[in-house]
């Protein structure tokens, strides 16, 4: 559906035009456009006075549609605390699902709006709600390096090992982006360093694929399985060598120093360091010999 005049005026902050349109019979809950309705448009853009006018004219606070699903998620994403508070007074569904982020709490957590996160949680937001893209609020906050929000969510009992979303869990999300402090917090609170989930399979492969040398060292010190299988690249070493932005040779050396198996020479020609290239070739022969010995023993 195309955008209507009321939504366009609400999005642009044109209060006088909004009043004119409503006086001439514009339907306040008309559907269509990027935001789905006028109330969501005003909520996302933070036009508080227009938002109030729309409410006075009967705008449905729980209408589900548009990019952000509902007005509460739109306001939470944009960081408009006053609009969030007003919506909650109108008995909006704090756990309404849908839209780009899945829920209002996920939107606020992802964008680092700490006060809104506190408000939503105090009003009963589900701290562990899962969305296909962003997983949980904890995963979104971890990915974006919002340390304070991570701590708030954990205090509210967020499941630190909750699985879901592109990165599978919060630790993998933080590891992928090199968020060292978040990784340490999650591990201190009992995150499973070897949990299998998400696009990279595990946190070590996520960190290795991103060239996050410090994170790789931290994960290994916390018992990460260097040869864990799964994920986009198969294992951490293949991730370090085969990722588009790689090869990350220092990460590969760390993994080899920690007894990583060289399961393939697919990416060996990308390695421009002759010593590392030779080390990989020798490692591959040793891996093949190990497989042969294992087959003979069985």
TrEMBL record:
Pfam families per the UniProt record, alphabetical: Ank (PF00023), Ank_2 (PF12796)
Molecular function GO terms recorded: RNA binding; RNA nuclease activity
Keywords (A to Z) from UniProt: ANK repeat, Repeat
Residue spans of the ANK repeats: 1-33, 34-66, 100-132, 133-165, 169-198
Any one of the GO BP annotations: RNA processing
Presence of the UniProt keyword Ligase in the record: no
Protein name: Uncharacterized protein
């Amino acid at each position: 559906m195309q955008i209507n005049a009321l939504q366009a005026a609400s999005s642009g902050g044109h209060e006088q035009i909004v009043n004119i349109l409503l006086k001439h019979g514009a339907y306040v809950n008309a559907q269509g456009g990027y935001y789905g309705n006028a109330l969501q448009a005003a909520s996302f853009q933070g036009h508080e006075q227009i938002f109030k006018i729309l409410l006075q004219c009967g705008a449905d606070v729980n209408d589900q549609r548009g990019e952000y699903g509902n007005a509460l998620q739109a306001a939470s994403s944009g960081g408009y605390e006053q609009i969030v508070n007003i919506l909650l007074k109108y008995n909006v569904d704090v756990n309404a699902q849908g839209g780009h982020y899945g829920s209002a709490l996920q939107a606020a957590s992802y964008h680092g709006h700490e006060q809104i996160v506190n408000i939503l949680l105090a009003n009963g937001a589900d701290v562990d709600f899962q969305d296909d893209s962003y997983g949980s609020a904890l995963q979104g906050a971890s990915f974006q390096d919002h340390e304070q929000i991570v701590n708030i969510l954990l205090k509210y009992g967020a499941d630190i090992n909750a699985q879901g979303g592109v990165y599978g869990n919060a630790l993998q999300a933080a590891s992928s982006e090199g968020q060292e402090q978040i990784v340490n917090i999650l591990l201190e609170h009992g995150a499973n360093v070897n949990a299998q989930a998400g696009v990279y399979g595990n946190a070590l492969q996520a960190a290795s694929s991103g060239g996050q040398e410090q994170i790789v060292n931290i994960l290994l010190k916390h018992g990460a399985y260097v040869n864990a299988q799964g994920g986009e690249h198969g294992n951490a070493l293949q991730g370090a060598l085969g990722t588009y932005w790689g090869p990350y040779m220092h990460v590969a050396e760390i993994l080899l120093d920690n007894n990583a198996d060289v399961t393939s020479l697919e990416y060996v020609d990308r390695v421009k360091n002759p010593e590392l290239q030779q080390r990989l070739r020798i490692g591959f022969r040793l891996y093949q010999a190990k497989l042969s010995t294992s087959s003979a023993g069985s």
